[in-house]
């Protein structure tokens, strides 16, 4: 379980608890490789439901959408904290 921090400056707010699925830059999310600065995660418990996704997908633009649909998303690795 990891904690996701907001992408909005000053990046101190926690926005969701998530499962870390992959740190591999070759992992695929929404048909796109995550790349070297992103992790593949799945939202378990949203805190800030309206937080926009770093990489929006069709019919999935915020934390609440991702959690409700159970889809994996990418999140910038520098805003993922292990707890």
How many DSSP helices?
Answer: 1
Helix content: under 10%
Tally of discrete structural domains: 1
SSE sequence, one letter per element:
EEEEEEEHEE
Shape: globular
Mean pLDDT: 95
User: What is the beta-strand fraction?
Assistant: over 45%
Write a short abstract of this structure:
By secondary structure, the protein is mainly β.
Can you walk through the features of this model?
The chain has 83 residues and is mainly β. The protein has one domain (2-82). Helices cover 8% and strands 51% of the residues. It has 1 helix and 9 strands, in the order βββββββαββ. The chain has one helix at residues 63-69, and strands at 2-5, 14-22, 28-29, 32-33, 38-46, 52-57, 60-62, 73-76, 80-82. The strands form 3 sheets. Strands 8-5-2-1-9 form a 5-stranded antiparallel sheet. The protein has a two-stranded antiparallel ribbon with strand order 3-4. Strands 6-7 form a two-stranded antiparallel ribbon. A hairpin with a 2-residue loop joins strand 6 and strand 7 (60-62). The chain is globular. The N and C termini lie close together (7 Å). The model has no long low-confidence stretch (mean pLDDT 95).
């Amino acid at each position: 379980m990891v904690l996701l921090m907001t992408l909005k400056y000053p990046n101190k707010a926690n926005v969701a608890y998530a499962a870390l699925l992959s740190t591999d830059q070759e992992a695929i999310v929404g048909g796109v490789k995550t790349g070297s600065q992103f992790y593949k995660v799945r939202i378990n418990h949203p805190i800030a439901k309206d937080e926009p996704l770093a990489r929006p997908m069709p019919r999935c633009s915020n934390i609440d959408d991702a959690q409700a649909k159970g889809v994996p998303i990418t999140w910038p690795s520098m805003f993922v904290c292990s707890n």
